Amino acid sequence: MKAIFRRIHPTDTDSAPPTTPPAYTPNSISASSSTVPSSSLPITVVELFQSQGCNSCPPANDNLISLASSSQVQTDYLLLTYHVTYWDYLGWTDTFGSSAFDARQRDYVRRMSLRSAFTPQVIVNGRASGVGSRKSDLERLLGDGSAGSQLPVSVSVVTGDGEDTIVTVNASGLSSDAEPLEVVVAWFDPERQDVQITRGENKGETLPHLNVVKSVERVGLIEEKEGEKVFVLDRRQDLGVRGAVLVQKGHGGWVVGAARI
């Protein structure tokens, strides 16, 4: 595992650690307009931060792909992979890397009071962190009481073929909190992608990737006592790209609602 101290663009896009690190429900929308509330089934959001230039990361990819192949993932989990850029100086520029993902990881590090960002880092529901290359960490995080439980904020999505997407967030079931809720959309490629690495720590390896996030878009805030709020998302032109709506308690805060676009 590698550790390092390192703002998401507002509209876009088993090695021992040197420091101790303190899918998704199928709410898919068909071409014809429909509505599916994310609260109808439990959902657990699993976010992996990694780099193609980190030689501790390939096992984390394998763990994620293995998890995605389980039947339970088809009903319970949303898996997202973010590629950070701060290891690019080691000789290989990550083909999926974005400084926006560095910033998202820093938000989590700050909110969890961790000593530093590191790769591969896995975060579950925005509230628990572990080493992504360790199956034991992943199993521990997914076995925690916060995973697999119903998220308190209901998110429903309505979309149609060629139309804008309507996202309705109902936070009335959440206890009053002075901090606004942040609504973000992570746009990701659900297909497996194999990348041949020709330089750096993983030189000569072909690394598989799954659910690679392409961009993260902040779509709005829900202030205290607003209850229900509607957001309109422009239709994406990227063929094959899927979206995941995440409702969080501010930057790097707990995930309290989620749904797939």
What would you say this structure looks like, in words?
The structure is a single chain. This protein has 261 residues and is α+β, with helices and mostly antiparallel strands. The chain has one domain. It has 4 helices and 16 strands. It is globular, with a radius of gyration of 17 Å. Pfam families: DUF1223. This is DUF1223-domain-containing protein.
Could you outline the blueprint of secondary structure elements for this entry?
Layout: E1 2-4, E2 34-37, E3 44-50, H1 58-68, H2 73-76, E4 77-83, H3 99-111, E5 117-119, E6 121-124, E7 128-131, H4 135-143, E8 154-159, E9 165-170, E10 181-189, E11 193-196, E12 206-209, E13 212-222, E14 228-233, E15 242-248, E16 255-260
Parallel strand pairs: 3-4
Antiparallel strand pairs: 1-5, 2-8, 3-6, 6-7, 8-9, 9-14, 10-13, 10-15, 11-12, 15-16
Region (Disordered): 1-31
Pfam family, one: DUF1223
Protein name: DUF1223-domain-containing protein
Rg, Cα atoms, Å: 17 Å
Number of strands: 16
**Considering DSSP H and I runs of 4 or more, what fraction of the residues is helical?**
10-25%
Task: For the largest sheet, list the strands in their spatial order.
Answer: 2-8-9-14
Compute the separation of the termini in Å.
33 Å
- Decide which structural class fits the backbone: alpha+beta
Strand content: 25-35%
In short:
The protein has one domain. The chain has 4 helices and 16 strands. It starts with a strand and ends with a strand.
Structural key phrases:
DUF1223, four-stranded antiparallel β-sheet, alpha+beta, DUF1223-domain-containing protein, 261 residues, four-stranded mixed β-sheet, 4 helices, Thioredoxin-like_sf
